[in-house]
């Protein structure tokens, strides 16, 4: 067969470009994983060689990416139905499902082994547990069965700061556990705010998102409840040695703003939301991103200040 | 005139080959870098040399059973 006979838009499984493989690793999710893991590692009260720190964060990122690839392999059927996800490499046919699975498994093994060798085996075990939890517990087991899928499954996305901390220190502590709790409690209102304005997508795929199984009212109640529960967790983190006045000030302001946004979401119904094209829900969603970013950013600033003042 | 039809498929293959090559290079660099860091962390690189492949008692510090 000559090259000239090939159609210009040929899409052959196994002929994906590097960009498709990169997309398979869910780079946007990976950026959150890298950021929170970095804060966990930097906030730890021990010095880590910069190269070991770099490799540790890289391993955590690759492990997160591997989870994403395995998630795309398993969820190819529902991804192909949802507007938000049908352009992903597997449902669009650019990467074969078996290829996604092989890449996910290979990168999982690679990242865990390298983290064990670079940092310590407790951190490697935690990373392995994180991958297992995201792929098996969330993706395979919970996602299609219960509307509490993202609540329990959110633990996988919450663990990276603890992995980062353990990679540095080799042991557990209260501060990183509270960081995990912060991300864990933040995940439900973040995703449910999104689910309120992309509701049709989850319904098409028959994913039992709370908006589909229990309706708008219950979802709005849950968003407010989790926003309230977030307050003591974030303030408790402010009382640990890794935090200080910068974190506490940021936390108070962010909690007030986020509570306000979630209050706005709670006090109205779907008709009101549709009238202004889900403005309040979109605001709460955007604010949730800022909430988490600035909380961890404040911890990073505290760690930087500690280094400067301690020098 | 030379017959050479470039298809975008070739571009994808080239990109993939380059990507795999760079990734393999990065893995080698990471393993080498980690090795250097771990050995230097011992403080005295000679301690590592003392157990390199076969035990060399002369390269092991006296307190650790060596003759040096």
Summarize the structure.
The complex is a heterodimer of chains A (311) and B (68). Chain A is mainly α and 311 residues long.
What attributes does this structure have?
heterodimer; A: 311 residues; mainly alpha; Tetracycline Repressor, domain 2; 2 domains; 15 helices; B: 68 residues; rod-shaped; UbiA_prenylTrfase_CS (chain A); transferase (chain A)
Describe the structure.
The complex is a heterodimer of chains A (311) and B (68). Chain A is mostly helical and 311 residues long. Chain A folds into two domains: 22-172, Tetracycline Repressor, domain 2; 173-304. Chain A has helices spanning 18-24, 27-43, 50-74, 76-79, 97-118, 121-142, 149-158, 160-169, 174-197, 199-205, 210-213, 215-237, 245-266, 270-275, 279-310. The radius of gyration of chain A is 21 Å and the shape is flat. In chain A, 49% of the residues are buried. With 68 residues, chain B is mainly α. In chain B, 57% of the residues lie in helices and 0% in strands. The termini of chain B are far apart. Chain A binds chain B through residues 2-4, 6, 8, 10, 12, 15-19, 21, 49, 51-52, 55, 58, 114, 117-118, and chain B through 5-13, 15-16, 18-19, 30, 33-34, 37, 41.
